[in-house]
Amino acid sequence: MKLFDQSGKLDADVQDILYELGNVGVGMASITIGRLLGVRIELVSPNVISVTDLSDQMLLSHIEKEEVGIWMRFAAPMSGLVLFILKRSFVIEVVEKMTGTRCEEEQLYKNEILFSALTEFANMLSAAYMKAVGTYTKMRIYLSPYLFVSGNEQIRLGDVSYELQMAADQAIWVETKFLLLEEEGQTDDAGRVVMLPDGNTVEMLMQALGL
Fold first, then answer.
1. Segment holding 172, helix H or strand E
2. Among 74, 67, 82, which residue's Cα sits nearest to residue 153?
3. What local confidence, expressed as pLDDT, does residue 161 receive?
4. Cβ contact 117:98 at 8 Å
5. What is the Cα Rg of the chain in Å?
6. What are phi and psi of 69, to 5 degrees?
7. Cis preceding linkage at 77, omega within 30
8. DSSP-derived 3-state class of residue 210
9. Taking 80 as the threshold, does the pLDDT of residue 167 lie above it?
10. Which residues contact 14 (CB under 8 A, 6 or more apart)?
């Protein structure tokens, strides 16, 4: 199956499938968050586009001042990235819930116990996300966290021998936002998840679905 049509645009069927994968992945991750914090999550419809000459600076430019980013990479034979870009206030709330300890902003990456909780939260999110995508595609898919970004801080996670390489010649950008639903019916922006599989990984996903 060709990923792109003659005009160079992402094939409509591929786009629809990636749209659904983004939905189910973030949906399962949101259930994990909801159970941890005792809140309800609402998903915003995914945005699916193709990206060429993806660079680390392009990815970093999507992290706002009040956000933190957790980079994850697909394990072989797949390649590509999944980014959890979360509101800093939301991350602090999660870490406090997990540790039962009050957390100031600068302690997120300076306190070993709090940062360990943050890394564990990243593992929980990635496992839930890929479990849903793997169930959908009948594939075993793994992610591993490898970079945490907050402001000017960039901290390596997991295998420190892994070369930092966030650029790709071409990738598919599948972005899903999620909101916390408050008791009064209001919503609070919690962050977004961006799945960036490269072309080979997308082809593997499509083949697994018989396309």
1. strand 168-181
2. 67
3. 54
4. yes
5. 17
6. -120, 135
7. yes
8. coil
9. no
10. 1, 3, 172, 202, 206, 211
Q: Which single residue is written with the structure tokens 């409509």?
A: 12
DSSP annotation of 25: H
Two tokens at 112? 């070993």
- 172/47 Cα distance (integer angstroms): 10
In the block, which residue shows the tokens 């009948």? 138
Peptide bond into 145 cis (omega under 30): no
> Measured between alpha carbons, how far is residue 140 from residues 48, 133, 148, 157, 201 in Å?
23, 9, 25, 22, 13
Q: Which amino acid is at 26?
A: V
Q: Where on the phi/psi map is residue 41: left (φ > 0), alpha (ψ -120 to 50), or beta?
A: beta
DSSP state of 162: S
DSSP string, 99-143: HSS---GGGGTT-HHHHHHHHHHHHHHHHHHHHHHHHHHT----E
The pTM for the full model equals 0.78
Count other Cβ atoms within 10 Å, centred on residue 201. Answer: 19
Distance from C-alpha of 73 to C-alpha of 82, rounded to nearest angstrom? 6
CA angle 180, 66, 183 (to 5 degrees): 20
**Per-residue confidence band for 109, with pLDDT thresholds at 50, 70 and 90:** confident
Alpha-carbon distance of 35 to 178, in angstroms, equals 15
Residue type, 56: D
**Which residues partner with 85 through β-bridges?**
69, 192
Tokens standing for residue 100: 């039962």
Residue-level pLDDT at 127? 83
